Task: structure prediction
Amino acid sequence: MKQDMIVILDLGGESNSALARQIRALGVYSEIYPHDTTVAQIKAMPNVKGIILSGGKNNIVDGRAIDIDPAIYDCGIPMLSLKHPTERCKCADGLNDALLESFLFSDAKCEKNWNMENFIADQVELIRRQVGNKKVLLALSGGVDSSVVAALLIKAIGKNLVCVHVNHGLLRKNEPEEVVRVFRDELGATLIYVDAVDRFLDKLNGVEEPETKRKIIGAEFIRVFEEEARKLDGIDFLAQGTIYPDIVESGTKTGKSVKAHHNVGGLPDDMKFELVEPVKYLFKDEVRACGLQLGLPESMVYRQPFPGPGLGVRCLGAITRDRLECVRESDAILREEFKKAGLEGKVWQYFTLIPDVKSVGVRDDARSFEYPVIIRAVNTVDAMTATIERLDWDLLDKITNRIVNEVKGVNRVCYDLTPKPTGTIEWE
Result:
């Protein structure tokens, strides 16, 4: 690793992600680790220049109050102990800048060497060291994360990358066709297309619980890859677009889990592959910066974020084919109207979802009993917090009219005004 590193030990801190980003913004790399990380583990990490013990209100860990005892973590390198929330700057919800800069550059003697050029060089070296001359399968959804991973792997191992695009029936309108066109036809990638629509929807039939849906989708993805790998020679690795918010939100020994991500909590114990996850310590904005540094076009780097489980977490409750189609069609209308209104690229993420409820309405002068569509449009930098986009009323009116008139089975449209927190970006 070419970058100096600061280790943040989570001893009940409430703003660890903000602190990590604040340190990186100053040009120093940082990572968050659970409270029971040992001295030996810290010493084994490359280029660690300092440790921050991140406590919070009453230093609550695993439901109990603890004391921050620096002696337990003494590695013979500079250490900063944050015992009280008053040490944090209220306006930025982060550490006081003067205190932080003094620790980083005076005490820890860090250099400002955290940048995308060094990150990419490190990852190329690590990928080559891990993979050697063997082949890697990549789950290529066509989204930002998997696209950046593909570019990194192409730079590191070239033709030893095999991309697999799985159509699980939970993708946006025309998305499978677009992925094949861009990556196979335009970029010349080795791309295997798998039509697994019926397979996934059959597995998900009747499943209501969100975490169970995510884990079924994640496990079935692995099975599909295993089957494709058996058709090829020398596939020992599986690449994934896991990013840092996925890991943080899925919970650690210290933190509470917000939700399981299919690429974090849904992998089967008997998986036959070794994982390659080159962007797993990057926040979303850093993933985009990495993509630009690798030469990916802005249209790809700033593509709308899309969850790994796809529309499976936007068709709330047990997935049905009719509601799935309603989500797909209404989402296409929303994206089309946002583009016409000049909001494409200006709003971070926007999509529709459909709950497993119906309401009474009127259609063709008769009583109807159909689904509502919920619109969500949010802005964020790192996907850890999000604010609501204040849409023009006329635009909402136009989108509503189109959805209720063009999407079969829908008679209402609602707009979600909840920021993150208290809501998450997705509903499931």
Observations:
- The first strand starts at residue 5 and ends at 11.
- The two ends are 37 Å apart (CA to CA).
- Residues 347 and 379 are 6 Å apart (CA to CA).
- Residues 84-93, 252-266 have pLDDT under 50 and may be disordered.
